[in-house]
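Quick question, first post here. What does this chain look like in 3D?
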Amino acid sequence: MKNRDKWITIAFLVFILVIPLVTVARNVLPHQQGEGLSEAEKAVLEQNGTLTGDKTTQTVGTAGDETGQSRLVKEPGFVRLQKSIDSFTDGLFGRTKLIAFNTGLTSLLTGGTYIESTQTLKGKNNMFFYKTELDGKPIWDYMGINHFTEEEMAAIAANLTATREHLGAKGIEFYTMCIPNKEIIYAENMPDTIARVNEVSRGEQLADYLHENTDLVFVYPKDALMANKDKIQLYYSTDSHSNQIGAFVNMQEFFKTVYETHAEIDSVTFRTDATDYAGDLVTMAGLTEKYGIDTVYVFEQDSADKAQYHDQVLLYVGDSFGGFLSQVCKGYYREVYWEDARDFQYSMLDRYDPDVVIWERAERYCEVFSEPILIK
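> Answer (accepted):
Ran it through. Tokens below.
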């Protein structure tokens, strides 16, 4: 018995010491974040904006810089330390296999009702949710515990109004969209252990404030998504994002608000590209082999109602939701350009010469509407 306990102790010490040492050795050599993932898994995370590199410094546009040049913003020491720790753990030797083992073990021990993951939460009906606190706080949004103050909403209103006036002086129409988190739309699939303090999330709170206190166009398509979600799935089960049908519903709510036109889901065509898609949430949890269960729908742009067409150039400034949203828009505008809001440079307005700018952010990022990124 003593010998057995001794060997178990030795094996445990080797396990917890060797992995960090191997990780340090590997990190001496250049490598990419996500090393150890398959190419397909990397593609999923990169496409959805959940695979990011080292951001010890952040490139941002300089005020008044029409050349698109940038400067580096140095972050506080604590932030750099935290990101160094995150970078080390992201590159941990055997990380994906350890994650897969851990999530598989906890799922087995709980009868498939729970998985252990820092970023992924398993809900009901094999639906997964994003529980990170390092990429927005979607669970806080769902719980209703991070509402804006009046001052914060007033600051957002002032910035959006100033942005509209600034772009309007250049002959550009300006609109804003805030896409509800998946947890808000599919609340019935959230675990019962996550209690909602307030069913009005801060995205809905902000939308109500702006509608009551300004004449801004701020599209928060929660009601449209709720009205359509029983017809067909609008968000992936295994991914934090809406699918292209959900993106279509979101854009039709925009068209209804701005142009007073609208089309139903069954009036257009979506082709099926795959039925075994495993999204970013199960990829991060190491469960791609078990949960390749989603259907990938692709909007057929030629099926768009020609009566909704606008002979305009659209610049879509947004986040990872913007990929599908801008693809849908290509059926309705002469030209469509999509830029990540984090990489936006003011000079892009001259490059694309848009007639319309849509600034979109997912609900978990909606505080950034206070940042004057579209004003010179």
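The radius of gyration is 23 Å.
The first strand starts at residue 57 and ends at 61.
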